Amino acid sequence: MNRLDGKVCLVTGAASGIGKRIAEVYAQAGGKVAIADLQLEAAETTAREIREAGGEAMAVAMDVTDEAQVVDGVARIVSGWGKVDVLVSNAGIQIVNKLTDFSLADWKKMLAIHLDGAFLTSRECLRGMEKRREGGAIIYMGSVHSHLASRLKAPYVTAKHGLLGLCRTVAKEAADYGVRANVICPGFVRTPLVDRQIPEQAKEFGISEDAVVKDIMLKDTVDGEFTTVDDVANVALTLAGFETNALTGQSIVVSHGWYMQ
Ligand code: NAD
Is the Cβ–Cβ distance between 39 and 32 less than 8 Å? Predict the structure, then answer.
């Protein structure tokens, strides 16, 4: 456990934040890591940094909402490294607004990135895993918002709840060929995604940025602390390396006790 020697790992949204750290930790554990992201230049930088540190990594241009790009991207990984053993469906964005002010276009964009992206990447990786029958792991990046709601986040909360359903279905369908599916549900992590929300929420609620952090984001944690990219990456490593179907169909909440299952 906690070693990924020779395993081929596809991490989406890995040019930044949580996905980037997962990619680094997987490479340190011996995995070959495909850094898939919309931002190709940043993905190439991450891949180069991993190679310079002695790991194996390739950058893959991929918009997870685009079927052809997902199919081509996975095919590129398979042609380079022969297979995909671990998928971390992590790419995501946040758009914050009152439900009554949300445009249909923004709603659809959010569901496309979080749900279509998870479906398309899962389907493409599972097709190969089903043929090879050598097992594997699918990990979805959920959120505490897979379990709880917050104001101004209707499509995010909807999509993150939806990932639980997708995960549980994949856990049942893919068990026959030894593939486990789980959701990681982080609390707030200081990444560009969260840094953008702080001033937005301060404006929306008419409070200071400090109050957004203390009185909204971290209010219900046990210790007022942010979750870190390392916390999430370590859980992602455990889920990727776990060897049996004993741990499947679960959501693991990593949130300083903000949400207790
Ligand atoms: P981030 O903004 O640092 O990174 C997200 C990455 O996803 C970026 O590199 C971006 O280019 C990429 N991306 C966006 N749309 C894409 C698309 N269509 N196709 C491919 N790549 C795309 O954000 P983060 O905080 O690291 O978030 C990563 C995941 O973690 C998201 O799913 C997010 O919802 C989830 N999450 C984050 C937090 C948090 O507090 N930061 C908490 C819970 C869950």
Answer: no
Ligand 1 neighbourhood includes 46 CB (under 6 angstroms): no
Residue 1 is predicted with a pLDDT of: 64
**Backbone phi, then psi, for 102, in 5-degree steps?**
-70, 135
Does 39 contact ligand 1 (Cβ within 6 A)?
yes
Q: What is the pLDDT of residue 201?
A: 87
> Could you tell me if 129 and 219 lie in one domain?
no
Q: How many CB atoms within 10 Å of residue 193?
A: 16
238 token code pair: 């455990």
Q: CA 105, CA 86: separation in Å to the nearest integer?
A: 32
Give the distance, in angstroms, between the CA of residue 68 and the centroid of all CA atoms in the same chain.
Answer: 20
pTM score: 0.98
Is residue 15 lining ligand 1, measured as CB closer than 6 Å? yes
Q: Quick one: tokens of 192?
A: 């560009």
How many CA atoms does the CB half-sphere of 117 hold within 13 Å? Answer: 30
pLDDT recorded at residue 102: 98
- The residue whose CA has the least distance to atom 35 of ligand 1 is 141
How many residues make up the chain in this entry?
Answer: 261
State whether 130 and 202 are in the same domain: no
Distance 133 CA to ligand 1 centre (A): 30
> Which domain does 218 fall in, by range?
190-226
Task: Compute mean pLDDT per 10 residues along the chain, 261 residues long, and list them.
Answer: 92 98 98 98 98 98 98 98 98 95 98 98 98 98 97 96 98 98 98 92 92 96 98 98 96 98 88
Backbone angles phi, psi at 50, to 5 degrees: -65, -45
Kindly state whether residues 15 and 47 are assigned to the same domain. yes
